[in-house]
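Hi support team,

I submitted a single chain yesterday and got back a structure, but I'm not sure I'm reading the token output correctly. Could someone confirm the output below corresponds to the sequence I sent? I've pasted both exactly as they appear in my results page.

Thanks,
R.
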Amino acid sequence: MKITWLGHGSFRIEIGEQVLLLDPWLSGNPMLPEVSHDAAVAGATHILLTHAHFDHVADTLDLSRKLHVPVVGQYDLLSFWEEHEGIATVGFNKGGTVDLGGVHVTMVHAVHSTSFGTENGPNVPGTECGFIIAGEGHTIYASGDTDVMADMKIFNDLHAPDIGILCAGGHFTMDMKRAAFAAKTFFDFKTVIPCHYKTFPILEQSADALVAGLPGVNVIEPEVMEAIEI
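Hi R., thanks for writing in. Yes, this is the structure output for that exact sequence:
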């Protein structure tokens, strides 16, 4: 398995025979140089979308068309897109699990918000979510954008993820200290990868507090476009 940070909350996950793009934000992403865009998405088989804020959804439609791959996410928005934008989708909802060619993805709850701007004001399509991704003998909890929540205990009891990809930049999501609390209180991760930080000055710039709060856990501060092999 290879997990590659594309900056901010975006990842490329090579798992089983699939290449999943999680919230791929390319255009305008200050952490991902344009020269790396093609390599970031090469060979993708699916796009996973946690919610509709611009820094997660901006490139979704264009990438789905360009790469000829389906978008996987909440039914409300995706069924509309399939009908009106002509893209392929795998729409489901919280508690549901889909089989993406041997990789099983379960949609779980998150606590955040979701919208994108239109000429008539904000459009609020569905709700925010996270994903449990299982394959190659590993289970990943990709939190999406969220705060700490007691639901996380249920995720661990049902799925026992060994890898956590956790938003931890603060201001818009939980920060490093809160992410550490969530990980040690509700999960038994072997590996934790922080994200949604460093992108802007308003966000946390270091994962030191996460590392300090999780002794015995392999906390990996990712580097953009450098694959983490697990």
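A quick pointer for reading it: Helices lie at 37-41, 54-57, 60-67, 75-84, 151-159, 176-186, 208-213. Let us know if anything else looks off.

Best,
Support desk
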